[in-house]
């Protein structure tokens, strides 16, 4: 029963504790642990993510202020900021990574049937991109970025059905986006949408040979020959051209020897023509444009993560602490997504996160919090309400 339980304690019920405990044993996370076990550390970090604490000190301050509630929230005890920070530096981040990957496998099927707006195909559709988190190169000496600045990149492969991240790769700021294509295993018949930074012909040809489809924007200096014009153009939809092309230079041909398709679309909102290249020759030209338009979903995901889950301010600066922090943020997102699917709430993931954040220390069943109640209608319609100007 959830009656009389705090919202936060109900949230952690959605954690697969046995998976986390297996990872702790595997990586010896509790070795030399005294007052702060790995599970207690996880609860501290999730409390910070879910309630929006901006620092380790804020997490410890909030929990200390509610010391009498700790046991009922799921904590054995609270610790000082130094101990929590030290644990983030030294505990193996792979404990959290394994928990995050398990949650991905658990949550993703819950959204597999989610439709994608204006998309008619049933293929799996992915968006690939990265977000950069600026930091101090003096504190995070491993995180080299551009122009002698510090930066951390979180590369994400997002399933567009439900906006569930299925692959997370954390690097320094100098890791080029196109390198991420070599880290992925192409999934046959799946569509991958990416921007110009991912136009690596050798990598894209690898995806093509594996039976996967990709849609990108061509680089400005790409040289090509048109070998076939398609005449079934639907001008009212905004499509202005549909061609089969081959790359022109010897080097490009060597990297991608087969023809590819180019679709041109006039965007009336920005007043310019946009070109797309893809290795799929069968889907409708407007579908190519619509699929690429959904690449923006990953930008919305990154924006949501930065606004609703704490990643803007890092809770540590060693490579291990940063990876642990970012995986905790992903775990918090996946838990919220799992709660949304389990309760079948009509609220969006953003709204679910907001309701949980402001009600974390409230005692109310989580389903009651997330299910919208119908407005009550007064059955006695003949009651004459007193007017403001009636005599008393």
Outline of this structure?
The chain has 392 residues and is an alpha+beta fold.
Count of strand segments: 9
Counting helices, strands and paired strands, the structural category is alpha+beta
Report the portion of residues in β strands: 15-25%
| Continuous helix count | 14
Shape: elongated
User: Major β-sheet, in short?
Assistant: 9 strands, mixed
Task: Determine Rg (CA atoms, Å).
Answer: 25 Å
> What is the N-to-C order of secondary-structure elements (H for helix, E for strand)?
HHHHHHHEEEEHEEEHEEHHHHH
- Mean pLDDT score, rounded? 88
Distance between the termini: 49 Å
Helix content: 25-40%
Spatial sequence of strands, sheet with the most strands: 3-2-1-4-5-9-8-7-6
Question: What is the chains' assembly state?
Answer: single chain
Residue runs with pLDDT of under 50 for 5 or more positions: 374-392
Keywords:
392 residues; alpha+beta; nine-stranded mixed sheet; 14 helices; 9 strands; 37% helix; disordered C terminus
Please describe what this structure looks like:
It is a single chain. With 392 residues, this protein is an alpha+beta fold. Among the domains are: 7-98 and 316-370, no CATH class; 195-288, no CATH class. 37% of the residues lie in helices and 17% in strands. The chain has 14 helices and 9 strands. Strands 3-2-1-4-5-9-8-7-6 form a 9-stranded mixed beta sheet, with helices on both faces. A hairpin with a 4-residue loop joins strand 8 and strand 9 (272-278). The longest helix is centred in the C-terminal third of the chain and has 25 residues, at 319-343. Mean pLDDT is 88; it is low at 374-392.
């Amino acid at each position: 029963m959830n009656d009389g339980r705090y919202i936060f304690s109900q949230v952690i019920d959605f954690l697969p504790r046995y998976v986390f405990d297996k990872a702790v044993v595997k990586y010896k996370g509790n070795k030399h642990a005294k007052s702060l076990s790995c599970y207690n550390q996880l609860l501290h970090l999730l409390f910070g993510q879910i309630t929006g604490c901006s620092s380790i000190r804020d997490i410890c301050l909030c929990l200390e202020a509610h010391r009498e509630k700790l046991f009922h929230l799921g904590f054995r005890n609270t610790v000082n900021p130094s101990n929590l920070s030290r644990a983030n530096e030294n505990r193996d981040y792979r404990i959290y990574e394994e928990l995050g990957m398990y949650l991905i496998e658990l949550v993703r099927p819950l959204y597999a049937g989610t439709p994608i707006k204006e998309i008619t195909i049933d293929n799996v559709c992915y968006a690939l991109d990265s977000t950069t988190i600026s930091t101090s190169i003096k504190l995070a000496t491993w995180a080299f970025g551009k122009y002698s600045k510090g930066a951390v990149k979180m590369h994400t492969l997002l399933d567009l059905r439900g906006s569930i991240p299925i692959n997370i790769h954390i690097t320094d700021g100098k890791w080029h986006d196109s390198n991420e294509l070599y880290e992925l295993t192409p999934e046959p018949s799946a569509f991958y949408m990416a921007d110009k930074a991912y136009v690596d012909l050798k990598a894209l040809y690898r995806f093509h040979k594996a039976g996967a489809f990709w849609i990108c924007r061509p680089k400005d200096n790409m040289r090509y020959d048109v070998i076939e014009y398609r005449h079934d153009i639907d001008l009212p939809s905004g499509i202005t051209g549909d061609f089969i092309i081959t790359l022109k230079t010897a080097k490009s041909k060597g990297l991608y020897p087969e023809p590819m398709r180019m679709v041109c679309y006039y965007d009336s909102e920005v007043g310019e023509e946009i070109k797309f290249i893809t290795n799929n020759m069968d889907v409708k030209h407007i579908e190519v444009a619509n699929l690429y338009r959904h690449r923006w979903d990953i930008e919305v995901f990154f924006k949501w993560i930065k606004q609703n889950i704490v990643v803007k301010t890092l809770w540590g600066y060693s490579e291990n602490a940063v990876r642990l922090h970012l995986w905790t943020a992903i775990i918090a997102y996946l838990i919220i997504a799992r709660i949304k699917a389990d309760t079948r709430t009509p609220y969006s993931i953003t709204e679910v996160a907001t309701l949980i954040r402001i009600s974390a220390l409230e005692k109310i069943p989580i389903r009651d919090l997330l299910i919208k109640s119908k407005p009550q209608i007064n059955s006695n319609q003949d009651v004459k309400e007193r007017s403001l100007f009636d005599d008393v």
